[in-house]
Structure formats: C-alpha cells, structure tokens
Design a protein that fits this description.
- This protein has 197 residues and is mainly alpha-helical.
- The protein folds into 2 domains: 95 residues, no CATH class; 71 residues, no CATH class.
- Helices cover 64% and strands 0% of the residues.
- The chain starts with a helix and ends in a 17-residue tail after the last helix.
- Keywords: Membrane, Transmembrane, Transmembrane helix.
- This is Glycosyl-4,4'-diaponeurosporenoate acyltransferase.
C-alpha cells in the first residue's frame, strides 16, 4: 500500500458557477501534468496579447480573466476525468486483506504549510470577506507583477513572501495556543540600581 493511499485529505470545494477555478485544486495540481495543459493555454494568450499590442495593465487584467476562464475549464475537465478514474479503480479493486498498516507518513513528512492553512488564515482574519480579499490581492499582485520595470516585480515577490511568512507565523502561534494554551507572560527582569559608595 502506498503512502498516498493512507494520507487523509479533505474533499475539494465545488467550483463556483461550475466554471471558476478553486485555489485548493490548483495548489495540488501545479506539480502534475494538469499544469502543463494549463500553461499551454498561456502560449496562445500571450501571442494574442502581443499581436494586439496591449498595455501592461491590460495584459495583467487579461491574465486574471484568462486564469478564471481557462483555469476553470481545465479544472472542470480534469475533475470529471479524475472522478471517472477513481470510480473505475474502485470497481476494479477487490477488498484489501486486513493487515497492520506500516509506512504511515510521519509528522515530519507532512508539509508544514499548505493551501488549506492559507485558507484557514485568511478566513480567520477576514471572516466572510475572505474570498473578496483573496481575489483583490491576486489582482493587485498581478498588476504589480506586470508593471513595467523590475521594481514592481520585486515588490510583488516580496509581498508574496511576506504574506506567506506572516500566515505561517500566525498559524504556528494559533496551533500552539490551541494545544498548550497561551504562553505565560514573561516578567521583565528586575534591575536593581545601587549607588556605589
């Protein structure tokens, strides 16, 4: 039995309106052949943007819209294909014999920070407005990245790194407090000043 069959994952949320992409799906699909199909679509998009001689901000907004349409379409098609494949595998497999499971992934093997953690962080900070905040942040970072010149790209990358670091730090603290309770306040050391005679 492989380690992948043992790992418990949450089901993916449904696509909005049956077409828009979900962050959870693409976070898991970036390192699979599904991403190749996704990126092949961008060759056509950038060829079209170059032939239309669009401005930087038009290209940036076009990337956001293209991701929503093309990413959602690719996700929809692959979700159907993966569901069909899983159903076929369930029909073809016989019940496994009962034996103790070995090779369980250890805590060290589990990723320290995943898309589910990011979703939990944004939901806890922004509540019901989490989706709107994430969409605005993605559009803002896309505009920054496509702004002409290197400073915009550096600021976009620095903003992504900083937001990841802040989310990881907050989630570690929240998990630690949930497991062990809040840390006790540390009293500052008392400094006694004595006059020398």
């Amino acid at each position: 039995m492989s380690d992948l069959a043992i790992v418990d994952t949450k089901p993916l949320p449904p696509q909005r309106w049956g077409l828009l992409p979900t962050r959870q799906f693409w976070a898991r699909a970036w390192l699979t052949p599904i991403a190749l199909v996704y990126w092949l679509g961008y060759i056509g998009f950038f060829s079209l943007a170059e032939s239309l001689q669009s401005n930087w901000w038009q290209t940036a907004l076009g990337v956001c819209i293209f991701h929503a349409l093309w990413g959602g379409l690719v996700e929809r098609l692959y979700r159907r294909r993966l569901a069909r494949r899983a159903a076929n595998l369930l029909e073809a497999t016989a019940p496994a014999p009962a034996f103790p499971m070995t090779g369980l992934p250890s805590r060290r093997d589990a990723p320290e920070f995943s898309v589910d953690d990011w979703e939990a962080f944004v939901a806890r900070i922004f509540g019901r407005g989490a989706d709107a905040v994430q969409t605005l942040a993605a559009v803002g970072l896309c505009l920054l990245f496509f702004y002409p010149g290197w400073p915009g790209k550096l600021v976009a990358v620095a903003a992504m790194l900083a937001s990841t670091w802040i989310a990881r730090t907050c989630l570690r603290r929240w998990r630690r407090e949930a497991l062990h309770g809040p840390r006790p306040a540390i009293d500052p050391p008392r400094v006694e000043c004595r006059a020398r005679h």
